[in-house]
């Protein structure tokens, strides 16, 4: 059974349809206590980082997600649901009284930043782009060079020379859009991606099948 977390920010309909298409039983879950009953968890998302974190915190869903990930529950984050795994985001930081970044779930080391207008490309990135995978990845490495559908103005910046972040570089897939950014992560029980597999045609469906073990 797959739990799709409803925190009023997700593209839940298209994700439900995708799992239905591959004949997997997925349910929308709002109660954090019920996550324990499911074999797999999906954190979707479309919208603002700060609002998403506020909604997750309302009923302690943020802590439930962290707890289930730390206990080894199979987890997938999609788009904003991927970005929320990082330590912080500069999205909406200007609305903060002290202009600090917005704190995320902190599962992954790194920060979410906005594409700059000087990259010479349209922001947001909307459309198809390829991913470059490292050999250490499990499922994702089968999709090296394949194209997936992206819609986003912010990107996950984990490309750092600091020791803590560098130790996890091999668990990311990367995409070029003005510059290289981390477009997906896969390690142990976590698979998370900036792109939308549920909107990415045959390869997106194949990726979901691999994740559920079909």
Outline the biggest β-sheet: 8 strands, mixed
In one word, what is the shape?
globular
Average residue pLDDT: 91
- Low-confidence runs: 161-165
Short description:
The chain is α/β, with parallel strands linked by helices and 214 residues long. The chain contains six helices and 14 strands.
Keywords, separated by commas or semicolons:
single chain, 214 residues, alpha/beta, 23% helix, globular
How would you sum up this structure, described in words?
This protein is α/β, with parallel strands linked by helices. The protein is 23% helix and 30% strand. It contains six helices and 14 strands. It has an eight-stranded mixed beta sheet with strand order 2-1-3-4-14-13-12-9. The model is unreliable at 161-165 (pLDDT under 50).
Task: Write the topology of this structure.
Elements: E1 2-5, H1 12-21, E2 26-29, E3 40-43, H2 49-58, H3 61-70, E4 74-78, H4 80-83, E5 86-89, E6 102-103, E7 108-114, E8 125-130, E9 132-133, E10 147-152, E11 154-157, H5 163-166, E12 172-176, E13 180-187, E14 190-193, H6 201-212
Parallel strand pairs: 1-2, 1-3, 3-4, 4-14, 5-7
Antiparallel strand pairs: 5-6, 7-11, 8-10, 9-12, 12-13, 13-14
């Amino acid at each position: 059974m797959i739990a799709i977390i409803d925190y009023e920010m997700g593209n839940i309909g298209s994700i439900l349809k995708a799992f239905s298409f591959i004949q997997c039983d997925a349910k929308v879950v709002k109660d954090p206590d019920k996550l324990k009953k499911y074999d797999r968890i999906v954190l979707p998302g479309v919208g603002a980082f700060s609002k998403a974190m506020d909604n997750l915190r309302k009923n302690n869903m943020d802590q439930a997600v962290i707890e289930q990930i730390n206990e080894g529950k199979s987890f997938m984050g999609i788009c904003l649901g991927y970005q929320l795994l990082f330590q912080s985001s500069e999205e909406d930081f200007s609305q903060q009284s002290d202009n600090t970044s917005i704190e995320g779930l902190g599962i992954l080391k790194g920060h979410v930043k906005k594409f700059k207008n000087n990259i010479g490309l349209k922001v947001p990135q909307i459309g198809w782009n390829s991913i470059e995978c490292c050999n250490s990845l499990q499922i994702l490495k089968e999709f090296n060079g394949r194209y997936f559908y992206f819609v986003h103005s912010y990107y996950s910046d984990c490309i750092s020379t600091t020791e803590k972040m560098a130790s996890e570089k091999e668990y990311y897939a990367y995409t070029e859009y003005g510059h290289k950014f981390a477009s997906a992560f896969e390690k142990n029980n976590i698979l998370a991606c900036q792109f939308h597999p549920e909107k990415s045609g045959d390869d997106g469906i194949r990726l979901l099948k691999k994740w559920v073990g079909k």
